[in-house]
Each structure stands twice: as structure tokens, then as C-alpha cells.
Amino acid sequence: MKELKSLFQEKTQHVQKDLKDILKNHGDLQVDTVVLRQVIGGMRGIKSMFSETSLLDPIDGIKFRGYSIPELRDSLPKSSRGDEPLPEGLFWLMLTGEVPSQSQVEGLADDWEKRSQVPEHTYRMIDSLPLDTHPMTQFSMAIASMQTESVFAKKYAEGISKMKYWDPMYEDVMNLIARLPHIAAYIYRRVYHDNKQIKADESLDWAANFAHMLGNNDEEFQDLMRLYLTIHADHEGGNASAHTTHLVGSTLSDAYYSLSAGMNALAGPLHGLANQEVIKFIFAMLDEIGTKTPTDEQVSKFIHKTLDEGRVIPGYGHAVLRQPDPRFTAQKKFSEKHLKEDDLIQVVWQLFRLVPDILDGLGKVKNPWPNVDAHSGAILVHYGIKEYTFYTVLFGVSRALGVLSNLCWARALGLPLERPKSVNLEWIKNYITEN
Ligand code: FCX
What we know:
Elements: H1 2-26, H2 36-40, E1 54-57, E2 61-64, E3 67-68, H3 69-75, H4 87-96, H5 102-114, H6 120-127, H7 135-145, H8 151-158, H9 166-192, H10 206-214, H11 219-231, H12 240-249, H13 255-266, H14 274-289, H15 296-308, H16 326-338, H17 343-361, H18 373-382, H19 391-412, H20 425-434
Helix pairs in contact: 4-19, 5-9, 6-7, 7-9, 7-13, 8-9, 9-10, 9-19, 10-11, 11-16, 11-19, 12-13, 12-19, 13-19, 14-18, 15-17, 16-18
Bound molecules: alpha-fluoro-carboxymethyldethia coenzyme a complex.
């Protein structure tokens, strides 16, 4: 899509100039101090990365180019058949900093539709895997298998100037995003529906077409997918999937290698896999208690038992947030509108009432509140997507929008190879003695 590409290029030129001036005039300005607890403790909170697409505030939650989730729901273009924002609009916003018009998002959806042909060998590769291969493994491998198509890798091999890296990266990113719903739906239908595949409906927007290929044409479900694919897209640069994609991309690996790596980070239970773990946890609890409508006392007992076994309560806590996650709240609002009477949704809300106090009581959990993963599974179950090992793939399709728009920015700005310094125990002990 020429309009988006040239707008992106124009925007990057302004930021490039700003960054150049900042580096020249303020490059030595200190922005943070680092203590040993952060060196050993997962680098929490250290300001050490540059990422334009979104910023996470511990209290207010995620803001995409300054827009909170409720503001996105108000401001981004919508489908004529739904109330939720179109993820195409969020991608446009992340890439350019501007809210697109209705015709611009429609143009982008058309462009993605044209680019959506998945190479045959990718399907063959997926088909060669055992059916019980985790869907995230299939998804990550499918993405890597399309690396044969990388325009960036081809142009790099031909000796493209570093000033032009952004152009083939943009092409790879657009092609990849266009294909992801097709790959994800293929894996879903292969694993859980006897490989009965559903042809794309070219008249639908990106999210609705994904819903259609999964096998559900309910307009409410299509709208849920628009919301779901919007709110999971980005969570600033330091979260594991975004950081991994950025790190791998910083070696000038192309978008396929970078996204595949990012998806492997998302597949961890402390990150994206938490959405599958939450529903597993809820089903295990209802199974053990033997009812769909447990009492508060029964639920509290199960939570305490889980903690006593040395396990975490999935869907609760966060490395940055210190309030209920606005992405949780957005899903709660959607459920209040559409799914109020659903027993499983009631259990999610019951956990929201009970878990924070219990976690707070442990005296060590910095954020006892629910994150995005606490709500999503119960909604998906309602619309028939009960196969929870697929849930992280859904997260991944959305997360690609954020991490890949970031990758375009990284190449356009010429961001360098990422290479922090590590220290060993001897270094730490010497440092303590010297200080
Ligand atoms: N249940 C039980 N214990 C928890 C907890 C939870 N939900 N959250 C944090 N804790 C514990 C930690 O395990 C740690 O214990 P330790 O000192 O014995 O090792 C202690 O509280 C301090 O951790 P804290 O600083 O609050 O949290 P971290 O930044 O280290 O970790 C995550 C953040 C998200 C990893 C943590 O809260 C967790 O494990 N939550 C459950 C898994 C989850 O929901 N992940 C999804 C997060 C997110 F939304 C996403 O990326 O998708």
C-alpha cells in the first residue's frame, strides 16, 4: 500500500532527525541508575531501550502512541458490522503515529488480503509435524519456514545500502501480517477439526476473516476478535516477545527469523502461555470442587492450595503494571455487554474479587491484580474456541502487529546491534568490596 509506505517513510525521517540531534546534544544525559538487584533480577525497570509504538505506565497501563485502550476503542475506525476497533487501524497508528481514516484501514485490509498467499511448503512443513505438536511450535516453525520469501534477506545478499533497509523490511512485515491469520487458522483446523479447512472470505476485514477461517461466523465473535487482536498487539519494548523480536532483528536477521524467535518467547508460561494456563487452572478448580458455580470459600481454598504447592496463580501479577490491567478491564466490559450470564465468566469475576487480597497477603507479590490473560480464555470458550492449547497462537497473531511495526522502525532509524554487558559473581564481589 503506497500511501502507508510513504507516510511511514516521511514520519521516520522526522524521528531520525530528532534522534540525531538528541544524540549529538544530549547523548551523555543520565536517564537511570542500576542497582545489583536489577542486574541479578531480570533487569526490572531499567530504562535502556528505545521503542516508539507504545509506552506502559504502571498505573494507567498501556498507551499506543498516547492512546489508552478505552481511547482506542473510541477513536479507531470500526467495521460497519461491529463496535470494536479494527486492528488494521492500530497497526497504522503504531507505524505512523496517526489515526487512519475509514478508507485508509479498508485499503490496508485490501493490501493484506492481496499479500496473504502462504507458500505451499509452509503447509507441507506443518503437515509433517505430529498432530500433538503444541500449536505454538507449529506457529513458530511455520513463520520461520516462510523465511525463504524474505525480501530483506534477498536485498541484503544483493548488497542493499543500509539507508534503504526499511523498505524490504516493510515489505516482509506486511507480507507476514497478511499471512498469519491463515497459518493460525490452518493449524487450528488441522489439530482440532480433522483438518477440515475453511476458505478465506475476501470481503471480510483482517480479524473477521480470521474468525471466519477458525470456523465461527457469529458477528459478535468477529467483533471479539477485532478487540482481542487490538488489545494484545503491543506492551512497549521490554516485554519478552517484543524484546526478543527486537534483539534478533538487531542482528539484521529478517522479519521471519525475528518474529519466530519472538513467538518462542511468547510461548513461555510466565508470558503468553499464561492465557492457556488460566483456563486450565479454572477447569482444574471446577473439576476438583465438582461444580460450575463454586462458593467464595471453595475458590479461596483452591487458590491457597495452589500457592502452597509452590505454583503461581496464572493471569495475576505483572512485571510493570501495579493496577488491574486495562486489557483485562476491556474484556470485562465486553463480557458485561455480551456474556453476563455465562457461568465461566462469573468464575473469572469471582477470581478477580478473591485473588488480589490473597496474593497481597503473601507480602511479596508486587502486583496482585489481574493481567490480560486472566480474562481471555473464558470468553473464547463461550464462542466455541475451547481448545486452550491454541490460545497463545491467537495472542501471537496480535502481538505480531506491535513487534513487527517496531521492527520497521528499528531498521528505518538504523538502530544498532543490541549488546548489553553481563558480569559474573567474581566481578560482583569485587565491585562490592571496592564500594
Ligand atoms: N502467583 C503467585 N506468586 C506470584 C504471582 C502470582 N500470580 N506473581 C508474582 N508472584 C511471586 C513471584 O513468583 C515472586 O516470588 P519469589 O520471590 O518467591 O520468586 C514474587 O511474587 C515477586 O514477584 P514480582 O516482582 O511481583 O513479579 P515478577 O515481575 O517477578 O513476575 C510475572 C511477573 C508476570 C512473571 C508474575 O507475576 C507471574 O508469574 N504471574 C503469573 C503468570 C502470568 O500471569 N503471566 C502473564 C503476564 C503478562 F500479562 C504477559 O506477559 O502475558
